[in-house]
């Protein structure tokens, strides 16, 4: 500790009273600060403060925002400071203290001086030494001089309201940001605090006296530990500090710091340390006399000579010259694992622009020079030497351990004369910026290099180094190592940016221009902020090391880095803190512990910035001319993707689905013009839309935690915003079975967002389809479909797994801490029943009220071995069973929270049923606590039946004895096609795989008007699926209808047109028309095998001969054939009521009783044709708009014909055979009837056509086909007898004119 040599202050300060002998510290002698008053004492106060603060302070370098109106601020009382006076009591105002103490009491001054003496002895004097009266007197003189400099002390010669504070006291007790201004008056503080503005809070003013030694040592005396940082040090500790304009002569001396701010670490950061901001020049306790200049002028080289000297081989040996010049540029302070360094450039005022010489400073004791250098000032660097940078061709000047940094005084230097004749070294190779023949792509832009001074107005992301400057520009400090500035930079701080890059229109969602300094430039602090920093939460401070990895390891350009930081913020908002902790998501990525945040971004970053690019070289980036760095060139970034929240994705999908909903698109003309109101509303009642990520701009990436719902029994993706149901396949035709995926983080770029639209409407006719007022209710079911093989699966840490995967954590069991005691048993699942609401038997003695049905399902299978207990981390051997030959069948009932396992259980897999807790005898055996009564077992045909408890878990068992997945063809039972289409009632439960062709919502039929409301004749809505059954022994796929009714509604997820589904144990039924259809039963199980294709390609119908429909092989249900219309059997045209389908002559409904709500009529038509293609005959039924095509009428002719039928309401013609007279419902001589009879017998109808059709009845083997019959034909005088096949009955899908005459059948028709 440096001591004063004399008791008198050399600055001319008034000497303080003689100190009394040291006594015990007085802790209660504390006085409030003195308010600015009126009188002679206040004259010149503001000028004195400004003069004391110096020119740089007077220039407004460190002034900022709103302040209290007095020096005294109310604050909570704390314990007395160690070594100082006690703090002021809370709530005491300055006015009351002045009234009570109009003049300082001698006892108060005495107590303050005693406390000061004790503090100085304990804090500033060497440990174990006697009290230093001379040092104590110097400290008191320094404090008094600074206190009196404000000129408004109200007659108090000592700052009795101020108490001394040590470094340890600040670090231990001061938990809130504060500032102290000994040399400022109240008005000066108020003016400074007003700069905080309306949105900022100024730092509260405390009355503390801080003294310490200014040093660049962090605590020990090792020179190598110096890293260029500044510290305030006393006997109690060391505290980092920031100072704007450092004088190197201050290092190692004792100072009083009159104006300073202290920012403690965040409350959550118990291991962190606060730092000091020294707002003005420190006041030396013992001013040192200025040392005289050198006796002889110092020989120096100027930059131009020093630059030429680098190329002379012989002149550099054994020479350590001095270099003088004006500071042109100073680079960033670069720290690496080995050493730190920075580069300064000196130029000459007379040299041409750009002529300068660079000097590398890497001696640890000289790194603090970086804080003392100011561009534009002139300096002298002594004892320099020349080195060659390893791995490069550069020869540069560098400092030696004996080098010094001195201000340049022309009278103290002389130019060193050197003879530069001799051999020259080869010039450093100029860096190749680009080859002459190559041209840069037009999309590449160049940044602008400039210097900028501005004030920070906002913090965009402190860990990522993103700030707002002057309210208009973005500032990115991530391309420099700005660790020391991270604590200082906040709104209100003034920065000078030297050689900073300006990038405009970087894209990627960033709209404002961006300033970004590289290692070539410097970030210089030019003014502190008066604002109190915002309370930074723990999660807001996470991710700094990860963001550094993006810059220094992944080598991201600025546009991509800005997008990556925003994407990580989006992910944090989606997943934190419920799914992941912020420090887990944004942790530093290492080979053994990868960062989840970086893993989620890696697929995108690997495409835009492939790994393995060359790493940044600090020397090359700083020294190379012309300048090259990652910020020099850039390309505007198109936002590659987005990570929407599940709630946003759900809402956006719902909005897009309803925006695209158009009933006219679902029912295009001319089909819709012939539909009744009931048919129209039934057609539009259900529709679906599939949205792909590529349809959004930018493309969307799905991220969430996979969870199993305890209430709905489905899988869900969850994030902070909510949940979204999902249907997942492990891969094609393979369901998800492994419960270890539950709770994992899922990321996928390939998925389908499915929106099922349900609409209740009352459209009268097709003319009102564009009127939304007829839509009574609309609902949407939104869910996601994707393959697990296309997704990235990341495990979530165990402490968060429980809360992240349960929709209702309170409903899930909580397992005890410590080693878990578990027992389990293996079983092979053979069948799973439907998930539906069921009734269960009430045990004896329970509540006699009828229980409500609850969601549940059952599975049947077989036990594999006995019960096993956990032995450490492995399962022990199964317990022996008494009778190994006893039936091992088991029925497991899942209800309550255990329904969450529904989507993970599938036939053919082996599972382990795990029960936590102490071993329970016969837990999985007959008669155990979870068994169901014997009557239920007999009905189920099982030896044991268990109710799976809520706390039990399931694990997929895999190993050499249990393959990971069974063969799909063996695991899924299938009914043969013959048994499926037969009329055998014994095979009532069938299983098959099929492709869904269509899905229709069948509304209940309206009750007759004579039926009583609420009667027994009420029908419920149902869903009809038309499927094409897959059969290995049949090329054509027969079509079948499947009906889903209550309690299986709403249908399971994934039943969409185009999807392949396996149905197990459907109930087969036969209609009155001998058609076969199926219905869902409680035992029905379905498994989606594949999703609908993303792009629908309509395959053409097979072109066949009609005789192929009569062959023994399976005929296609839909096909096309080239044939000839032989005759017309019947024709019917009519107008019916759109509401009740009654006949409407003259547009009036003929229904008796109550009138229909609307008087709207629609036209309907049907025609039956006899066609043949030379191989067989068929009767084809055409309806509605196909009738116009069959009659060969154009749209206008068809419209006129229908309008002519509106009057009678109905016209029907019946032809008994070719050439026979028609039977008509109207008069034969009517012109309309004559026209239709003539038209139906003309060659415009009886012509060759290409007919697309489907079988009128679905394929069935309920009734045998009619055998061929003998029929007699007369050909002139010759009578022929031949076998004629029965006429095939077809329904017309379309009629087209043949393109070529050869497109007719096998034989042309001969007349």
TrEMBL record:
Residues 1-109, 957-976 are annotated as: Disordered. Keywords: Chromosome, DNA-binding, Nucleus, Telomere. The keyword DNA-binding applies. It is found in: Chromosome, Telomere; Nucleus. GO terms for biological process: bone marrow development; DNA damage response; hematopoietic stem cell proliferation; multicellular organism growth; negative regulation of telomere maintenance via telomerase; positive regulation of DNA replication; positive regulation of fibroblast proliferation; regulation of G2/M transition of mitotic cell cycle. One of its GO terms (molecular function) is G-rich strand telomeric DNA binding. GO terms for cellular component: CST complex; cytosol; nucleoplasm. Residues 72-81 have a biased composition (Basic and acidic residues). It comes from the Eukaryota. Coiled coil: none annotated. Belongs to the CTC1 family. This is CST complex subunit CTC1. It comes from Ailuropoda melanoleuca.
